[in-house]
Amino acid sequence: MDGGFPRGSLILVSGNPGTGKTTLTAGFLYEGSKRQGENGIYASFSESKQSFYENMASMGHDFESLENEGHFRFLEVFSASRQGMSEIAKYILEEIKRFGAKRLVIDSYSAMAQALGNEYEGRQILHTFFSRIMRNMGCTTLLIGEQPTGDFRIGDTAEEFVADGVLSLKLTIPRELEIRKMRGTRLQRRKALYTLDNGFNVVTTRLRRPEAVKLWHPVPDSEGLLSTGSPDFDAILGGGFPRGSYVVLEVSSDVTVAEVQLMTSGLILNFISQKRGAMMIPMQGVDSKQIKATLGQYASDDILDDYLRISEQVERHSSGARRASVAPYVVPIEYGEGSGNEDELTASSDAFLSAYKQLKTRTRNQPIVRSIAYDSLETSYARFPDKLLNEVGIAMMRTRSAGDLTFGIARATVSILAKVQGMVDWHIKLSKMDEVLLVQGAKPYTNIYAADCDVSKGYPVMTLKALT
User: Fold this and answer.
1) What is the CATH number of the domain that holds 363?
2) What is the DSSP string of 49-107?
3) Which of 61, 118, 212, 297 has a Cα at 20 to 30 A from 307?
């Protein structure tokens, strides 16, 4: 919102029950008092002071201490009637002036409008009462508007026109807010996802690079489970993936390669930094040089050369000559195009298997992680569709028997995905909503998490926040 609510403005916060209206508005008052030194008032037509304090304390907001310090007031105005509304308005205005409040929450406008009885008087109190608060006293006011469950209309619509800003909180999974208007700001976008986990928090996904790059520091395994390189992801999985896990990572069409790599790069780096093997069949459009450039910032050349292997397709020349020398981390996969062997897959799984065995020997039989892009596999096996499913099945058996970890990465449009889903024990989904990268377990089922990128350690680590 271009920095926040415009000072002295009237903001309508509407939503169905359970969408977090109280959490958002109370947090506005709490942060104002704690961080900005601005006194705040919460005027409630329904909730008692004791109930409010107890609910907010569960979120880490100690309003009772703020009150004792002289920075917060809770006004209980329960029985509002048409005749008594002017007295209530006068009482609130006097408290703002006496207390020097710069922030005010009214909970709720719906109760006030009901007491007033008609839309015209509702408009009048918005124009006169709240105008005096905002313009003459410089008090930023958040006005809660109640919506019955399933109703998307905000009150009698009068408040939408009078208010400077309108926020609509939606009862969806994940939770979504819409900024319907916000005078005096330059909005970057009008919709965002939020969570009520430890207060009201808007979530974002920002792919960043650290200012001071450092080598990856391994996240250790726990109790025989293989770490993903992300402590948050490990926690969701109960400590990591069991050895022998074959995981299908389903990726929606709007998720970028860089967003997929937020998860997979940490996984690869965590293995090779512990001198364990990592093997990759990259997604289409990604080659070994790009992967080396990405991972090479956080791992030494020796580590990459010794423990990373990237499959890369090589066309054999018509003369049958082999490709010139390649980087140690590249596994050249030669196909029969132009060699007179167009009906044969001359070297694919054999070359990959040979590199795998070499890594197993080099690492003294430690677990190896494989990142396999199904779109690349389908292209390679376009003329051999029956062989493709067989190769995947064999890979699953090898993974389980060797205690390794394999990630099969599949766009939702890849045809083999439907066949593989029933064969695996782990199915993770990557999707996007309102520019936020979402992670959810489909098998086993988990809650939805918003992914972000932490670079505080000098390298990118995927963080996850529950969308509760």
Assistant:
1) 3.40.50.300
2) HHHHHHHHHTTT--HHHHHHTTSEEEEE-----TTTHHHHHHHHHHHHHHHT-SEEEEE
3) 212
